[in-house]
Amino acid sequence: MDVKGLAAVVTGGGSGMGAETARALASAGAKVALLDINKANVEAVAKEINGLAIECDVSSEASAKAALDAAKKAHGSARILISCAGIVAGSRIVGREAPHDLGLFSKVLNVNLVGSFNMMRLAAAEMSTLEPLNETGERGLVVNTASVAAYEGQIGQAAYSASKGGIVALTLPAARELGRFGIRVVTIAPGLIETPMLGGMTPEVQESLIATTIFPKRLGKPAEYAKLVLHICENELINGETIRLDGAVRLAPK
Question: For residue 198, what pLDDT band results from cuts at 50, 70 and 90?
Fold first, then answer.
């Protein structure tokens, strides 16, 4: 898939991996709509790349529909959906004062897992009606974002790991179902990426995490995630797979 001239939607486009992916897609010639719950952030990135900024709660059916409709009106039907929107929350299942807050657990799953599924189902329904882009019948691409925590979740990451594990488990059945429409589904599972989410941790915690990375001994960069997205766009054989982007890190229990 040559992204030049194609309409792309990037959730979580106001910061981190989403913002960098939007920049990379725009530089490659795609027409990019950036979705984010943070209106000010997403407007700033969109202005930088001449994209379309849309305030959106990906876990809301109404908000997601309205956002995709606005993106379609501006750029045409999306051929590419990159889901980077996500939140993290740390809490033990059995805390010192009370069990894990059920509302918090539900919120993390709603944004990370339900939100990714919500965007995929709506975007794929539109993609399935479009004309093929090439002789193989490719119509579109969905890239979801998981995490290495889906495999090696640490103590206190029950909600986050469950949400990202769900995205990993969703990948193959989605690719199998949507393949008949020429729509690929791929997931990226980043490791320790230099994003606002990780930036909230103390330097000591960051260093301890970096120490578990095999090579290179550093945090990943959002641009490295964006480069992988562009390669997935171009390489039609990548489908139904979760790709770890992590420097061979394996997270310790805590």
Answer: confident
| 135-172: pLDDT as tens digits | 999 999 999 999 999 999 999 999 999 999 999 999 99
Q: How many CB atoms lie within 10 A of CB 56?
A: 29
Least confident of 1-15, 189-203, 228-242: 189-203
Which domains can be identified in the chain, with CATH numbers?
Answer: 7-192+220-241 (3.40.50.720)
Amino acid at 254: K
Q: Residue 16: name the closest of 208, 169, 145 by CA.
A: 145
Q: Tokens standing for 62? A: 């109404």
Residue 73 CB burial class (10 angstroms; 0-12, 13-18, ≥19) = exposed
User: Which residues are annotated as catalytic?
Assistant: 160
CB-based contact 32:42 (threshold 8 Å): no
Which long-range contacts (C-beta less than 8 Å, at least 24 apart) are formed by 233-237? 233/1, 233/3, 233/80, 233/141, 234/1, 234/2, 234/3, 236/1, 236/136, 236/138, 236/184
How many helices and strands, by DSSP H and E, does the chain display? 10, 7
